[in-house]
Amino acid sequence: MQRRRLILYRGLEGDLRHGWPRYLNAALMVLIAANVIAVVIGSIAAVQRDWGDWLVAFELVSVAVFTVEYLVRLWVAVEAKAYSGRWGRLRYALTPMALIDLVAIAPFYLGLWLELDTRFLRVLRLLRVFKLTRYSASMDLLLTVLRQEAAAIGSAMFVMLIIIVLAASGIHLIEGRVQPDAMGSIPKAMWWAAVTLTTVGYGDVVPVTVPGRLFGLLITVAGVGMVALPAGILASGFSQELNKRREAYRRRVKRALEDGTVSRRERAVLERKRRELGVSEEEASAILDAESAGPRSCPHCGKPLTASEPAPPR
Amino acid sequence: MQRRRLILYRGLEGDLRHGWPRYLNAALMVLIAANVIAVVIGSIAAVQRDWGDWLVAFELVSVAVFTVEYLVRLWVAVEAKAYSGRWGRLRYALTPMALIDLVAIAPFYLGLWLELDTRFLRVLRLLRVFKLTRYSASMDLLLTVLRQEAAAIGSAMFVMLIIIVLAASGIHLIEGRVQPDAMGSIPKAMWWAAVTLTTVGYGDVVPVTVPGRLFGLLITVAGVGMVALPAGILASGFSQELNKRREAYRRRVKRALEDGTVSRRERAVLERKRRELGVSEEEASAILDAESAGPRSCPHCGKPLTASEPAPPR
Amino acid sequence: MQRRRLILYRGLEGDLRHGWPRYLNAALMVLIAANVIAVVIGSIAAVQRDWGDWLVAFELVSVAVFTVEYLVRLWVAVEAKAYSGRWGRLRYALTPMALIDLVAIAPFYLGLWLELDTRFLRVLRLLRVFKLTRYSASMDLLLTVLRQEAAAIGSAMFVMLIIIVLAASGIHLIEGRVQPDAMGSIPKAMWWAAVTLTTVGYGDVVPVTVPGRLFGLLITVAGVGMVALPAGILASGFSQELNKRREAYRRRVKRALEDGTVSRRERAVLERKRRELGVSEEEASAILDAESAGPRSCPHCGKPLTASEPAPPR
Amino acid sequence: MQRRRLILYRGLEGDLRHGWPRYLNAALMVLIAANVIAVVIGSIAAVQRDWGDWLVAFELVSVAVFTVEYLVRLWVAVEAKAYSGRWGRLRYALTPMALIDLVAIAPFYLGLWLELDTRFLRVLRLLRVFKLTRYSASMDLLLTVLRQEAAAIGSAMFVMLIIIVLAASGIHLIEGRVQPDAMGSIPKAMWWAAVTLTTVGYGDVVPVTVPGRLFGLLITVAGVGMVALPAGILASGFSQELNKRREAYRRRVKRALEDGTVSRRERAVLERKRRELGVSEEEASAILDAESAGPRSCPHCGKPLTASEPAPPR
Asked: HSE (CB half, 13 Å, CA atoms) of D235?
C-alpha cells in the first residue's frame, strides 16, 4: 500500500516526461480540454437538443474521473515532505492547485443537493480549465510576474476606476440634458467613460455637442495614458523577473567557478538549475563566458582573487 | 493639551496599523468611499427624488466630520519636525495632502455664500476620493513614477496633439467637401483624428472616399506608434524606479556588511528600509547573497577592503 | 563549372553590397514587391478584366525566374561549409529560407496538376513576400525577439483565449435571452468577448441591459490588462536581447584590450562584430571607454590583471 | 558688425534663460503657437468670412517675422565653431532645424509665384509647429529615442503592413462574395484589416458569416500582438537611452573621483553635464554615493586602486 502510494505520487506530481505518467497526464489534459469544448458547444440550443444525452453522459464520466483524481491526489499528498505529518492532507487541500481541483467537481455535487440554475451550473464547469495550469511550464513566468505585480496593477485599476467615475461625472454635467438616455446619471455615463478610457470605443454612445466632444477628446487622450500604465508595470515586471532569474543563475555559476573550473557534477547541477529558472541555453553560456573571463586568480601570485579561506598574514 | 495633541498626531499621521488609530482611519476611509457612492447614485433622478433628504443629511454629517478632521490635522501638524516653528501650520496647509483635505470641504462652504449650480457642486464632492491616496501604500510607486515621467509624458501628449492637428488638417483637405458636417473644418475633423489616433475608433465618423481611406489607413497605423509612446515611457520609468530603490537597498546592505556580518540591529534597520522601499523579501535576500559573495577583504593582505577609517601613511 | 558555382554562390549569399550581386539582388527584391502588388490589384474585378492577360504573363515570368533562382540556390548551396558533404543540398532544402523559396513557386505547379480554386491559388502567391526577409537586416532583431519570446507570448495568447471563453460564458448567462442572435450561445458570444477584450470594439454587438453593461465594464477594464501582457513581454524581450548583444560586444572589447591597446586589426574585427550585433557606434565607443577606464593592471605589482598565460608558481 | 553678430548669435542660440534673449524667444514661441491656432480656426467657413482680412494680415506679419528670423540665423550661424569657415552657412542651411525654418516660410513665397490651391497652402503653414521643437528641452529624449529606434519601428510597421495585406486577402477569400462592397477586392478589404489589426475598430465594416467571424477573432487577437511590438521597442529604447545617459554621467563622476574628492570646479562641471544628460538630481546623488562608497584606494597601503599612472615595479 505504502509503495503503491509512492508510485502514484511520482506518477502524478513527479517527473511527468517519461514512462506511464506521461500518458496518464496527457490523458487528463485531453479530458480537461474536451470538457471545455463540451461546455462551449453545449450552449448551442441545437447541439443541446440533438446531443444532450451524450453531453450528460460525458459530464458524468468526467466528474467521476476528476473525483477519483482529486481523492488520489489527497491520498498521496503526504508523500511530499511539505505535507507529511499531522494535518498534512488538510494543508494540501488548501493549496491553490487542490482548491482548483475541488472547484472543478464541487458544482456537480452541489447541483445534486440544491436547486440551482442548470445554465449557471453548466458554465461553472468551465473553471476546470484552470486545472491545465498544473501542466504548463511556460505559464509559470507569466503567473509569477502577475502575482508579483498584483499590487501595482491593482493600484492602476483603482486609478482607472476613479478616472472613469470622474470622466462619467464630467460628461454627465456637459451632456446629461442633451442625451438623458445615455448620460442622464453618473452610473449611466460610466458606460461611455469606461468604453472610451479603455480605448474600446464601441460607438453606441458618443458625445454630440461641441463641449462634449472637446471633453471627449481630452478623455480619449487620457485613455492612452491609462492603457499604458499596466503595460508599463508588466513590462518592468517581466524585465525584473528575468533579471532576477539570470542573477540567481549567475550566482550559481560563480559558486561553481570558485575553484577555477566547472566539474562534470557542477555542470549537471547548473543545467538543472538553468531549466528550473527558465534561462535560455544561449544566455547561460554567455553568463559562463562572462564569469570565466574575469580574473579568478591573480595571474602573477597565483592566489584566487575570491578566496573563501582567510588570507595568510603577511 | 500638549500631550493630547501628540496623541492625536500619532493617531492621524503615525503608525496606522495598531490600536485605536487603526479603527479611526478605517472609519475615515469608509466615510470617503460612502461619499463617492452617494454622489454617483445621487445623480440618478429617481434616487434623488426618493432619498434626497437622506443624501443631504449624509452630506451635512460628512462635511462636519471632514471639517473637524481638517482642523485637527492643522492643529497637530506642528508636532511633526518639518512643520514646527513659525509659519509651520501655514506650510503644512500648503502641502498637497492638506490642500486635498481643503478641496474636499471648500465647495460646501462656497455653496453657502455664492449662488452656484447645484449639480456642479455635487460633482465636485467626488474630489474627496483623492483623500484616499493618504492611506494607499501601494499607490506610492505609481505616483512616484508618474511624477518623474511627467515631463516625458507631457512631451508625448504634446506630440500627440500636434499629430492630431496634422491628421485633422489632412482629412479636412481630402474629405472636407464630401462630409462637410464631420470634416468641414479642422476643429471638426479633430474629433475623427483624436478618436482614430488613440485607437478608440467609435465609428461615428469614418472616411468614405478612397483617398480618405488610404489616408485613414496611414493614420490608424501611426496611431499604434502614438499609443506605444506613453507605454514605453512608463515601462522604462517603472524599471528605473524599481532599480533605483533596489540600488538604495543594496547600498544599505553594503554599509551593514562593512564589518563582515549583519548584526541583529542592522537586520532590523534593513528590514524597515526594505519595507519603505517596497523591495520584495525575495529580492532583498538575493541582494544580501550577492553582496556577501564578493571579496570583503583584500585577498593578499587579508584586511577588509572597505574600511571606514583612513589608511595609515606608509 | 566549379568556379562558376563559387561565383554564383558569392553573388547570391555573400556580400550583397558591391558589384553585380548588388544589382541582381535589387532586381529580385523589385520582382517580389511587384508580385505582391500584382496579386493585390489583381483581386479588383475591373483590373482582372482589363489587364488579366498581362497579369498571367507576369505570373509566368515570375514563376520562371523564381524557379531558376530556387534551382541555382540549391546547386550552389554546397559551397557553404554548413551544407557541404553528403545530404548537404537536402539539409539546405529544409532550411526556413529554402522552404520559403519553395512555397513561393509550389502553388503554381500544384495548380497545373490539381483542380484548385483559382482565387485561393492567387492569394497564396502573397506568401512570396516572405522571400523579402532574406534581404532585411533590420528585421533580424525583430524576428530574434519574437522567436525567443514565442513561448511567453503563446502563454499570453492562451490566457487570452481562456478569458475570452469565460467572458463569453458570462455575457451569455446574463444577456443570452435578451439578445439571442448575438449572445444566444457561448460561441456566438465569443465574438463580442474577443472584440471587447482586444479593445477593438466594433460596436456591432454591445450589452444592452444594466447587469450586462456592468459585466461589460469589468471586461473592458480587464481587456486593458490583457493587451498589456504581450506589450510587457515584448518590451522585456527587446531589452534583454539588446543587453545580450551589447554584452557580447563588451566581451570582445575586453578580449581586445587584454594587452592594453586595441591594434588596427583588432579595431577592424570589433567594427565587423559591432555591425553584426547591431550595436550603435555611440554605444560601442561608450563600451570601449568604460572598459579602458577600469584598472588594466594590478596597481601594486604593475602587471596586467587579465593575462592569457598561466601565472608562474610562487 | 562682428560684435553685433556675436550678440545676436548668443541671443538666438546660446543660453535662452536670462536677459533679453528670454523675452525674444518667448515672443517667437507665442507667434508660432498663434500661427497654428490661426490656421486651425481659419478653416472654419464662418471665421474665414468674418475675420478673413485679419487672418491675411496676421499671415503677412508672421511671414515677415519668420523671414527676418531665418535670415538672421543664417547670418549669425558662422559664429558657431561647427559652421565657421567656407561653406559654413550652406552647411548650417542644410541642418534639420534650418530646413524647418525654411519650410515654415517657403509655401508663402511659392504661393506668390505659382498657382496653388489656397486651402492646401494654408494647411502647409501648420508645419511651422515644428519650429517649436527648438525650444523644447524635454522633447530631446523623445526625439533621440525615436531616431535610434527608427529602424526597428520601421521594421515593425513593415511587418504590420504585410500582415494587413495577408489579413485582407484572407477575409476577401472568405467574405468577398457576401460583402462585395466592403470585401470585394484585397484593396477594399485592407480597410477592415487595418482598422482591426490596429485595434481601432470603427465597426463600419465587420465580418458577418461564421467563418468570417472566426477569422476575425484570430485577427483581433493577432492585432494585440501587433500593437505590442512598437510599445515593446519604444519601452526598451527609453530604458537603453536613459541607462546610456546615466552611465555617461557615472563615467564623469568616476573621473572626478579619481583623486579621491570632488573639487568645487568638478562639481560645477558635473552639474552642467547632469542637466545636459537629463539625469535627475536624485539619481545623480545616488550615482555619486555608489561611486564614493567603493574603495577608491587601498585602505592599507594608501595607493589608489584605479591609478592612471603605471604602478612602480616591485
From this structure: 42
Rg (CA), chain A: 29
> Could you read off the pLDDT of C49-79 as tens digits, one per residue?
999 899 999 999 999 999 999 999 888 888 8
In the three-class reduction of DSSP (H, G, I as helix; E, B as strand; rest coil), residue C304 is classed as strand
Say whether pLDDT at C174 is over 50. Answer: yes
pLDDT of residue D311: 40
In angstroms, the CA B283 to CA B288 distance is 9
Contacts 24+ apart (CB under 8 A), D143-151: D144/D241, D145/B232, D145/D234, D145/D237, D145/D238, D145/D241, D146/D234, D148/C280, D148/D237, D148/D240, D148/D241, D149/D233, D149/D234, D149/D237, D151/C138
Alpha-helical runs (H) found in chain D? 2-13, 19-42, 45-76, 88-93, 96-113, 118-124, 139-148, 150-175, 180-183, 186-197, 210-256, 264-277, 281-293
Nearest-CB residue to D142 (from B152, B173, B223): B152
Give residues with Cβ within 8 angstroms of A118, minimum separation 6: A111
User: CA A121, CA A55: separation in Å to the nearest integer?
Assistant: 14
CA nearest neighbour of A275 among A304, A293, A252, A256: A252
- CA dist D229 and D190 (Å) reads 20
Distances (CA, A) of C85 to A6, B299, C7, C74: 52, 54, 19, 14
Tell me if residue C11 falls in helix, strand or coil.
helix
With cell 436547486, the residue in question is A115
Grid cell, residue A58, equals 460525458
Q: Which one, of D35, A199, A219, D161, lies nearest residue B165 by Cα?
A: D35
Q: What's the CA gap between C111 and C117, in Å, rounded? A: 9
Predicted structure pTM score? 0.83
Tens-digit pLDDT string for chain A (314 aa)? 678 888 888 777 766 666 788 888 888 889 999 999 999 998 898 998 999 899 999 999 999 999 999 999 888 888 888 888 778 888 888 888 888 888 888 888 888 887 777 778 888 888 888 887 776 655 677 788 888 888 788 888 888 888 899 999 999 999 999 999 999 999 999 999 999 999 999 999 999 999 999 999 999 988 888 888 888 888 888 888 888 888 888 888 888 887 777 888 888 888 877 777 777 777 787 778 777 765 444 445 545 444 343 444 44
**Residue D101 one-letter amino acid:** D
Residue A185: list chain B partners with CB under 8 A: 43-45
pLDDT in tens, B36-71: 999 999 989 899 899 989 999 999 999 999 999 999
Query: Closest partner residue to D148 among C160, C195, C280, by Cβ?
Result: C280
- Taking the CB of residue A200, how many other CB atoms lie within 10 A of it? 32
Burial grade of C4 (CB within 10 A; 0-12, 13-18, 19 or more): exposed
- Find residue C297's DSSP bridge partners: C304
Q: Which three cell numbers stand for residue C67?
A: 524557379
The predicted complex's ipTM stands at: 0.81
The whole-angstrom distance between D299's CA and the closest CA on chain B is 4
Please name the residues in contact with D15: beta carbons below 8 A apart, sequence gap of 6 or more. D21
CB contact (8 A) between residue C142 and residue D156: yes
Residue A100 CA to residue A106 CA, distance in Å, equals: 10
Interface of B with C (CB under 8 A): 199-203, 228, 231-232, 235, 300
- From the list D7, D127, D122, the residue with the least C-alpha distance to D58 is D122
- Distances, alpha carbon C20 to alpha carbons A216, C14, C30, C112, in Å: 58, 12, 16, 35
Closest-CA distance of chain A to residue D99, Å: 31
Taking the C-alpha atoms of residue C75 and residue C6, their distance in angstroms, rounded to an integer, is 10
| Assigned C-alpha cell, D41 | 480656426
**Which residue has 462634449 as its cell numbers?**
A212
Cα–Cα distance for residue pair A33/B70, rounded to 1 Å: 58
